[in-house]
Amino acid sequence: MTQGSESVRFDKRTTDTVLHRFEQWARDTPEARALIAGPDSLTYGELDARAERLAHRLLDSGLPLGALVAVGTARQAHLVVAVLAVLKAGGSYTVVDVASPRSGRRQLAAAEPLLLLTDAAQQAALDDGGGPRVIRLDAETPTIGRPRTEQPADQPGNRSTDPLPGAAAVPPRRTAAVLFTGAAEPRAVPVGHGLLLAAHDAWAEVARPTPRDRHLFTLGTDVTAFAAGWTRALCSGGALVLAPRSAWKPQEVRAAVETERVTVLHTDPAGATRLLIQDAESGTLAPVAHRPADPACRSLRLLAVTGDRLYLDEQATLQARLHPGARVLNVYGSAECAGIGTWFELPQLPHPLDDLEEISLLGTAFPGFRIETRGREIFLVTPDGGDAIPTGDVGLLRDDGLLEYGGRIRDRIALPGGRWVDPYPVESAIRRHEGIGAVIVKGVDGPRGPRRLVAYVAPPPGGPTWPAGAFLPDIEELRDHLAGKVLREEAPRTVIRLRTLPRTAAGREDRDALPLPIMPAAAKAAGSKSGKSGAAAGTSEASAGCAAGCGGVGLGFVAMILTNFLWPGSTDLTGVPQPWAFLFFVLYLFECVAFGVGAVFLIGGRARMLRQRRSPSLTVAAHLAVSYLLLSWWPQDNLYRLAAKQDWPRQAALVYAFNIPLMIAGVLVAAYVVSKPADPFDFHDPLDDHPDR
């Protein structure tokens, strides 16, 4: 099935580019604000002049026409200058990740650019000596292998007055940018001038940008949303709101939206949730969907959410948090399409729908683009009429003409017996359970079978948090909820509760980053596969036990020596007949040894108790209780022997200081013994130990 529009046509003979659109605004409105980035803020005229100076510098360095130039700098205003300069010089650009140098080096290896524009702070991390030539944006002398003195990139100097190559007619299919896919191993995707412009025009027809708009992108500059999306602001006369020195931090976005009166926000589902729900009115007790519009976001007229699935109930909640008249777009696309493909907003629904928690609608194709479904897989067709691009996602063209998202093909789970499970329908069914906001179903190998289905669940935004976890279902309740909705063999066998689901830098749920369940039995089985490994494990256990025993005896001997210094006369057996004197001496010896063993257990016992997979808080309490039961005999008995039987104040103090805590310790040990160990596939979220994160 096919869906599409011909509103935006791709003319193979056109010579227009996004650079020409920007330069036209620079000529018409040179005093208008183009970049808002603190001290690096620039008007259109200043931005155009700086980009032109850097373009001449690139040409002076020998940049050939059409060459690929990588840009990597934490100063986002300088990054935009560099991107425009590369286009002016007739080259193509790619933006690499500087927040994660390892990721940036992988991107450089995938794209193989001729030059790298960067700063001193990032050069050491990105330049390994075998990559592209480097031109420093913050130095007067470029490090490109030949001695030469040049002006800094952002300072005026002697430059040619010859027209720049970017001002000439450019073939639409000539590469303008190289974008990266969001996979773990980045893949370089070339995007032509014609497609980059067609994507902007298609976006403009849907979003209707104006010169008064201020755009803010929360995702990294190397992500397609920004690397191709900057045109949405600078080709429509609007302004880009940028972080001055580095990428946006989550806590900074809300302040920037309110202070700079951002009108168009480009973000991912987690970023939108964080801005409009988690950071807003945290003290209110009203349900999230019924909270009033957020006053801090009163300037927003358009929220574009991209990067991952957005369910209808989430989109409706975001819409309710904005002021009347504002729009929420669910934007779906790929790097091959310059970041766009389809869009959806709630008014497109022809009638009300049930089960909003289970449905994610991708809507309709952007003008000029087309959608095709082949064997349920979604294909996107760009305005240039090239081959259909497989997305790796499953979709359904509904009777109402809207495209419904159906999951990712690569997320399918192979089960024993050659069966495959598509996790998306199971995840959508689980989301209908009250108290669950997000879920990922994943296949995990374990000792109870080659693979079992595990549900990683997180609460809805603004909902109850951990460590209580009382509002989330256990596995039995979840199975009852799924009964009749999914096949029995497709229902998860374990629930793992997390504060939030992990996400990639591009905003996609990161299944590879999910914590693995702790499986002691699996570790033992792995160790027993090899006689050498098993022997090594046994030797390690024996060595640890021997060290603990020796340490306990040693500390007991020290305790016996210290007894007469701390409590003189408490162990004096003069006048006690045999064999009673010997028996009392053995008692004193056992008390000292118990104290030594208790000291060793206090230091090293908790780690071994945690292996039992019982409640972490109960484990800590039981560990302290056992330690107290062993440690207290030595001081307690010595103090009792020195107290007169009729000294009631001292006797009462000893009872309350030692005997009652001994009773409490016994109760705690009993509770620990009878408590049910956790499923070996269950996982304790480490964030529970850090509530401030």
> What spatial order of strands do you see in the largest sheet?
1-17-18-19-20-16-15-14-13-12-10-11-2-3
Low-confidence stretches: 140-160, 281-289, 466-470, 520-542, 679-693
Count of alpha/pi helices: 19
Shape: elongated
Question: Structural class, from secondary structure content?
Answer: alpha/beta
Helix-residue proportion? 25-40%
Number of strands: 25
**Distance, first to last CA:** 46 Å
Strand content: 15-25%
Rounded to an integer, what's the Rg over CA atoms? 33 Å
Please tell me the overall pLDDT. 82
Biggest sheet features: 14 strands, mixed
Polypeptide structure, described:
The structure is a single chain. The chain is an alpha/beta fold. The chain contains 19 helices and 25 strands. The strands form five sheets. Strands 1-17-18-19-20-16-15-14-13-12-10-11-2-3 form a 14-stranded mixed beta sheet, with helices on both faces. A four-stranded parallel beta sheet has the order 5-4-6-7, with helices on both faces. Strands 23-24-25 form a three-stranded mixed beta sheet, covered by helices on one side. Strand 19 (389-397) and strand 20 form a beta hairpin. Helix 14 (520-528) crosses helix 15 (531-566) and helix 17 crosses helix 19 (648-674). The chain is elongated and about 115 Å long. 41% of the residues are buried.
